[in-house]
Amino acid sequence: MTASDWKKVAEQLKNKPVVMQKFTRFNKPKDRKQGVAAFKCERCGRFGAHISQYNLNLCRQCFREIAEEIGFKKYS
Question: For 31, left (φ over 0), alpha (ψ -120 to 50), or beta?
């Protein structure tokens, strides 16, 4: 079961708290601590090529678009 499928089923079970509690206990996806899906871009939501240095949390494409606005300079 993918995370998006889990969200759809959880939405349907909102009005049934007992069933939702049991479903959550056994079927909730694990929180990612490492790997590609652990971090996603705060601007566009992409998973790959994540820049977390300086607490940016951006993908490389978004970083290139807004680098000059946030104070980075291109040296080459």
Answer: beta
- Cross-strand pairs, 51: 58
In this structure, how many other beta carbons lie within 10 angstroms of the beta carbon of residue 63? 19
Q: What's the CA angle centered on 35, arms 32 and 38, to 5 degrees?
A: 40
d(CA 20, CA 17): 5
Name every residue whose Cβ is closer than 8 Å to that of residue 19 and which is 6 or more positions away in sequence: 13
Measured CA to CA, the distance from residue 73 to residue 76 in angstroms comes to: 9
User: pLDDT tens per residue, the chain (76 residues)?
Assistant: 566 687 888 888 889 999 989 988 888 877 888 888 888 899 998 888 889 888 999 999 999 999 999 999 988 7
How many angstroms from the chain centroid is the CA of residue 71?
25
